[in-house]
From TrEMBL, chain A:
Listed GO biological process terms: transmembrane transport
Primary subcellular site in the record, as a coarse category: membrane
Annotated ranges, domain ABC transmembrane type-1: 71-286
Protein name, entry field: Sugar ABC transporter permease
Family matches, as PROSITE patterns: ABC_TM1 (PS50928)
Membrane-spanning segments: 12-35, 75-97, 109-130, 168-187, 208-230, 265-285
PANTHER family cross-referenced by the UniProt entry: ABC TRANSPORTER PERMEASE PROTEIN (PTHR30193), INNER MEMBRANE ABC TRANSPORTER PERMEASE PROTEIN YCJO (PTHR30193:SF37)
Native species: Cohnella abietis
From TrEMBL, chain B:
Membrane topology: Multi-pass membrane protein
PROSITE patterns named in the record: ABC_TM1, PROKAR_LIPOPROTEIN
Protein name: ABC transporter permease
Protein's organism: Cohnella abietis
Domain of life: Bacteria
Upper classification of the organism: Bacteria, Bacillati, Bacillota, Bacilli, Bacillales
Amino acid sequence: MNDSSAIRPKRITFLIYLLPSIILFAFMVLVPVLLAVRYSFFKWSGGPKMEFIGLDNYKVLITDGNFWNAFVNNLLIVFFSVFGQIGIAFVISIFLMSKVVKWKGFHRTVIFIPVVLSSVVIGFLWGMIYNQDAGMLNWMLRTIGLESWIKPWLDDPNLVMYSVTVPIVWQYIGFYLIIFLAAMQSINSEVYEMAELDGATGFKKMRYITLPLLSSTIKIAIMLCIAGNMKAFDSIFVMTGGGPGSSSTVMAQYAYDTSFKSYKLGYGSTISVGIMVLSVGLIIISRMIGGRNRD
Amino acid sequence: MTKAANRIGQIGVNVFLFAISLSCIFPLIWMLYSSLKTSQEFNLNIMSLPSNPQFQNYIDAFKIGKMGTYFWNSAFVSLFTVVFTILFGFFTAYIIARFKFPFRGIIYFMFLTGMLIPIHGLLIPIFVEFKALGLLDKKITLIFPYVAFNLSMAVFLFENFIKTVPIDVEEAACIDGSSSTNTVMRIVFPLCLPVISTAIILFFLGAWNEFPFGLVLIKSPELRTLPIGLTNFNGQYTANYTQMLAAMVIVVLPVVVVYLAFAKKVMQGMTAGAVKG
């Protein structure tokens, strides 16, 4: 900051510049957070009757199998995304930095395309890929003679979470790829030349130079991955609606169903508070673990 | 390593990358050509190319599926989201970047925490709040949450950029008699053009693709945005896959065109917060 009294606008102009954002932000973020906490203490179905029940909703939440099942589903998506998206993106970015790969620009451009698409379209598209009778996946298995592998990908409760996670992982590989490529390009090439003089080969260069120098980028990527996947909703809503049963229900879906299908707005708010606490908690924990590794 | 093994490794890496790229682009190509098939043709063989490409599915998607209405709703909401996010974000970031004032740190911190709060957790209180204020189900309803949730990113982007712009230019303009508003609009704003173009793309894509708030805050069929219209489309005309595919193409086509035209800017925009933050 470089405070200069010469260019400082008049008090009224100053406020006109500053206030619209603050008011809008308060009205859309701060007030709703407080409202969610307030409603979470009530039994309320949206009508004029609101019954204060103190911490009862939280007592229910702690033993609510459906909520924790949804949380575990979110964790599963986070787990596969951290390894799938960040892992695959890291491998691809190493390949794209090497000299042997052709058509680098093409790969970079194409792998990023799914990132910009609507998750709703991705959900429908993968719904068609997974379709039991007319789906592309089963068609492919049939064509290459693996009839026995054909499965009802979205209708099997034991399988469905893996089926809905694949498109989520697939969609955002390009996002982490671009982050890693940007970070790798900023590594000074002299570091590599020195290492080569010392006899470091391909794998060793990656292990002892690229990986350590990228550690802060990887930590940011993991944080974004956690934050992004705790709000997974769109594509699963479209593919399965959380089903069959509650086998692919994630936290956002559970809050939506409770509030807008069962009209339990009080308890729905309690779930919302739960989502916020768990998400922010997970991000803070990941930061603390990442921070300790720094030394 | 022998030369032959090296060569095989090189080919392997290239094949692997082509397989990945193909997996990213083939579903879209399939969607595009399948949308030109008739239902019977699609049911006969889902992978084959259309023998006689025809646009009936698109005509039906617009006529029966109301995709045109949804398209203009999305365009309207996205346009105003982009304009207001950039204006509000720019002015706020300018003040935060340039001047000392009470609560400055708290205000900046408040905007930054906006990036960490899981927005989906706020669906219910925002629904209740909008209901109380009579803001549900209006043409402008979605602009409020979209602008607000983008403000964190906008303030962050602009603040970082304005800090790098030398203050001397503004002081010189001031000495020459330019009013502060004039200086900000005529000098600082145009200097921010590189960030503004990134921001336009980022906020446009976000608003165009957003789903949960559109689902909860809009009830009237004639006010729905494209992603919501698509889910409704699916429910009402089930099993007509080719029409559904045409509707999906209508949703993604503008995005893919913008992306291919400004690939580098889009990538910068989508990853701006991540790389710098």
